[in-house]
Design a protein that fits this description.
- The protein is of the alpha/beta class and about 260 residues long.
- The protein is about 45% helix and about 15% strand.
- It is built from twelve helices and nine strands.
- A five-stranded parallel sheet has the order 4-3-1-2-9, with helices on both faces. A four-stranded parallel sheet has the order 6-5-7-8.
- α1 packs across α12.
- The longest helix has 17 residues, at about 50-65.
- Bound molecules: D-glutamic acid.
- D-glutamic acid (DGL) binds next to α3 and α9.
Length: about 260
């Protein structure tokens, strides 16, 4: 088979990365994909860097061994812990997601920017370097969302549990204008409408959402184009693999096709 007709490997700790895959299927309908969800070990965001790195390697090794032509790390947390090491480890393009604070900070509207992400992402050195590079630290309010990815893993994106979780989070903030909310974890993309509704009830300002998945898929296309690796013959077919077995695969298939 020609190299450019190989599949693209997607990886996340669990269901979150499917939000990136859904967008990639729309944008790159002539590609085929293999998605690996490490549902048995999710959530990653409350683990140590060493653990996240070892788990990420184990998953991406499987995708690499399947002969994918590129890897997309659809997990902000794994990006923070392991992206440099992954780029050294695999001899194929590795594209990754990170919190979209740059586009959020380019908004002319005055106000704070809330960054919702896992505790690991927010505490990580890579995120802090990104904030320094963009130079918008004084506008940001970081909100580590311990436990939220776990609720999203259940696959019910409008549950009372999630609504109550978000209400509690936003209650902590004094009334102040919020120009943007960065969806800094791919799991949260599935609950973005609920995040915006609850933020608007509690806070003022436009609360515009910024989700890194769109830029990440654009980057994937750019990289494949540059390397002349865009497929002509695929059909947005997705194979789904999980460390947690058939029930997780079935749930992820349902989420992907919804
Ligand atoms: N979906 C992942 C992210 O983008 C990780 C969530 C988790 O496993 O904690 O950060």
């Amino acid at each position: 088979m020609e190299k450019r007709e190989l599949s693209i490997g997607f990886f996340d700790s669990g269901v979150g990365g499917l939000s990136v895959l859904k967008h990639a299927r729309e944008q790159l309908p002539k590609e085929n994909f293999i998605f690996y969800g490490d549902n048995a070990h999710a959530p990653y965001g409350e683990r140590s860097e060493e653990e996240i790195r070892a788990l990420s390697f184990a998953c991406c090794d499987r995708l690499f061994e399947r002969g994918v032509k590129a890897l997309l790390v659809a997990c902000n947390t794994a990006t923070g812990a392991a992206i440099h090491a992954m780029r050294e480890r695999y001899q194929i393009p590795v594209v990754s997601i990170e919190p979209a604070i740059k586009p959020a900070s380019e908004s002319k509207e005055e106000g704070k920017i809330l960054v919702l992400a896992t505790p690991f992402t927010i505490e990580g050195a890579r995120y802090h370097r990104l904030v320094d590079r963009v130079g918008c630290g004084d506008r940001l309010i970081q909100i580590p969302c311990k436990g939220l990815a776990d609720l999203v893993e259940k696959g019910e994106f409008e549950s009372q549990e999630i609504a109550e979780y978000l209400q509690k989070k936003f209650e902590q903030f004094p009334e102040q204008p919020v120009s943007g909310i960065v969806i800094g974890c791919t799991h949260y993309s599935f609950i973005a409408p609920l995040i915006q509704t609850i933020a608007k009830q509690r806070l003022s300002g436009s609360c515009t959402l910024y989700d890194g998945r769109y830029g990440t898929v654009r980057q994937l296309r750019r990289v494949l184009e540059q390397d002349q690796m865009l497929s002509q013959k695929g059909s947005a077919r997705c194979e789904i693999l999980s460390s947690a077995g058939p029930e997780s695969v079935a749930l992820m298939r349902k989420i992907l096709e919804a």
